[in-house]
Write a structure and sequence with these properties.
381 residues, alpha/beta, Rossmann fold, seven-stranded parallel β-sheet, globular
């Protein structure tokens, strides 16, 4: 069997799909990847578990002429290779791939689109619905299966797209429970020393690209409210992106140089997450956030913004949810955990239990069942 993974950028494949690709290779599949290679900006992130990589000039902007070149190059690739399955990801990567694969589907190739979080959802802007919903509705007929990674998107897809294609659901893309797990106090202290932190610090970790959607400015503003109440507060922002300089200026203007630290893009957060006291995310939109699952598997409580991804993960007892733009609510939630070690411990225990369904082991089983079912349908036709 031979499968092609596509996405707009290669970092998406490397961040989310390597465990699945490893599983398929171990089962004897030949695994190919096609994407735009952006790894030079990702500080050591590497493509693994891949038999062949093809550079395709996808662009995130629907208006970019690069996507037409990507379509032509991908169509040529599909005519040369004979894939049993194409698994496409990300909005533009998914659209261009499904269009390029129209002929190869007629030859029996199964085309699967994995939606990591629709841009239209309950509470999103009218513009998002007017822009993205018609596109996804139209494109649904060009795939054999649409996979969603959260319950809200699954319900929406079943209702709106169910007549055009089959809909399935998996618990995200999976977090490696062998990398993210609780550590001993001695190991935690060593991890803190490696990051220049002390055992007395109250440490918050926030992970994600430094962009508008991840909304780190709410956490920085909350840190300004907390710095006098929590003199040992340390906030770590892991990631890079277009808002980096703006966030640095904000940190400087609020006098938070000794409180908030930008770690840059990290590929070793399994050495950081177990060492912190709390994980915070203020994102405006999330499909199924890996950083929250990573925290939960490490028995860390979570303070997160209300959105469909966070709402599905952060239930009563595992953390606190707040409005993404309500700085005071975030500050109060952080203070509540900072002043109550037993509450942090209880939340962490519950979080680890709940996150078990979102591990690599669980999700690989779900994905294998989906791929096996798709191929069995092919054999029966």
């Amino acid at each position: 069997m031979k499968i092609l993974y596509t996405a707009t950028v290669l970092s998406h494949i490397c961040q989310f799909h390597l465990p699945h690709m490893k599983m398929l290779q171990e089962m004897g599949w030949e695994v190919h990847v096609a994407a735009h290679d952006n790894l030079s900006a990702k500080n050591g992130l590497q493509l693994k578990n891949c038999d062949k990589f093809t550079e395709i000039p996808f662009d995130r902007s629907p208006k970019s002429p690069s996507n037409f070149r990507a379509y032509k190059r991908l169509k040529k690739l599909l005519s040369e290779e004979h894939y049993d399955v194409i698994l496409c990801n990300t909005p533009m990567g998914g659209v261009v791939t499904r269009l390029a694969a129209k002929k190869t589907r007629k030859r029996g190739t199964k085309v699967i689109y994995m939606a990591h979080g629709f841009h239209f959802f309950k509470g999103s802007s009218k513009a998002s619905w007017l822009t993205y919903y018609p596109i996804e509705k139209h494109m649904a007929k060009y795939c054999d299966l649409l996979i969603t990674v959260n319950e809200e998107d699954y319900a929406l897809a079943k209702e709106r797209f169910g007549k055009r294609t089959k809909i399935a659901h998996i618990h995200g893309v999976g977090v490696d429970e062998k990398r993210y797990h609780p550590v001993t106090p001695e190991e935690q202290s060593a991890m803190r020393r490696a990051e220049g932190l002390s055992d007395d610090d109250f440490v918050i970790l926030c992970t994600g690209e430094l962009n508008e959607n991840k909304n780190q400015k709410t956490l920085i503003s909350a840190a300004a409210l907390l710095k006098d109440k929590l003199p040992n507060l340390k906030v770590l922002l892991a990631g890079n992106g277009p808002k980096e300089q703006e966030l640095r200026s904000m940190i400087d203007s609020l006098g938070l140089q000794d409180v908030v630290r930008l770690l840059g893009y990290r590929t070793d957060l399994e050495k950081v997450t177990p060492a912190v006291d709390l994980v915070v995310s203020c994102s405006l939109r999330e499909g199924m956030p890996l950083n929250i699952i990573e925290a939960m598997l490490c028995k860390k409580p979570v303070v997160a913004s209300h959105n469909r991804g966070h709402d599905e993960l952060v239930e009563d007892g595992t953390g606190v949810l707040a409005d993404p733009n309500d700085t005071y609510s975030f500050a109060e939630a952080v203070l509540r955990y900072a002043n109550n070690r037993s509450a942090r411990d209880r939340a962490g225990e519950l979080a680890a239990e709940y996150a078990d369904s979102y591990t690599v082991a669980s999700v690989r089983t779900e994905l294998y069942g989906i791929l096996d079912g798709a191929l069995r349908n092919t054999e029966q036709q």
